[in-house]
Amino acid sequence: MSTVMHLSDMHFGTESPPVLAALTRQIVELSPDVVVISGDLTQRARRREFRAARRFIDAVNAAGCVVVLVPGNHDIPLYNPIARFLWPFKRYRAAIGGTAVSLTQVDRLQFITVNSVRRERHASGYITARRSREVVAKTLHRNAGDVTIVVTHHPLGTTALGEADTDHQGDVQTCRAWHAAGVNLVLSGHVHRPFLLDATEQLVQTGEDSERPLWILNAGTAISHRVRHDYPNSFNLLHFSQSNDGWDMQLERWDYSSQGARFEMHLERQVALG
């Protein structure tokens, strides 16, 4: 069994110290194999915020976890439009790493990171057709029977969730292509709201019943005081196991409790990946 901790929207610069301390303890106690961070490591892409994010990543690595991450829209300059258009990821690349579509293999799990941030749109973003094709190419070359997990910042299918957003018009085409290639799961963040969506029902819409779902799992904000929609700080914990019927994922959502100054498991759900 492989265990993955899914964090998002750290927003260093607005972090709550007690929540950060509790999360650090949980990483040591839960000892996940992989920690995924689906973007927005910083609040305003300032150097000191990237340094704080780098210290956190180094601490996670020191705990024996593989870190898989992507940038978010807060990781490019907001108040310097020249820097945002000419070299938007300069500080991110210097402190954190690259932004190209990349693959990380951990046991039978294949993680593909894809950058959804667009310099011309500071808040909203989307997956370009070129990057979508790169994800498809890497998925098609996976080992037979492996689980393919795509990590991006902006959640696919916000329109299907009742949020009018014309910037996500290409999500249907992206989901269809990734589903056809064999992607099992997409991890995202951005909206500070945890949810689980079966894209085969609302986005892929092939007109035929599909035996294999394409799940989109969103995470809330892990440590920032900028919580929204009455959701507390939280993270997802995923346990992957294989049986004769395919892969299953046990999904746990852990919410921060200010009374106990710790994260506690809030809900649990068994998900078939096919």
Describe it.
The protein has 274 residues and is α/β, with parallel strands linked by helices. The protein is 26% helix and 28% strand. It is built from seven helices and twelve strands. The chain has a six-stranded mixed β-sheet with strand order 3-2-1-10-11-12. Strands 4-5-6-7-9-8 form a six-stranded mixed β-sheet. A hairpin with a 2-residue loop joins strand 10 (234-243) and strand 11. The model is unreliable at 159-163 (pLDDT under 50).
How do the helices and strands line up, and which of them pair or pack?
Blueprint lengths: L1 E6 L9 H14 L3 E5 L8 H16 L3 E5 L10 H6 L3 H6 L6 E5 L2 E5 L15 H12 L6 E5 L19 H11 L3 E4 L6 E4 H6 L10 E4 L15 E10 L2 E12 L4 E11 L2
Parallel strand pairs: 1-2, 2-3, 5-6, 6-7, 7-9
Antiparallel strand pairs: 1-10, 4-5, 8-9, 10-11, 11-12
Which bin fits the share of residues in helices?
A: 25-40%
Rg (C-alpha, Å): 18 Å
- In total, the number of strands is 12
**Overall morphology:** globular
Strand content: 25-35%
The chain-level structural class is alpha/beta
- Strand order of the biggest β-sheet: 3-2-1-10-11-12
Oligomer: single chain
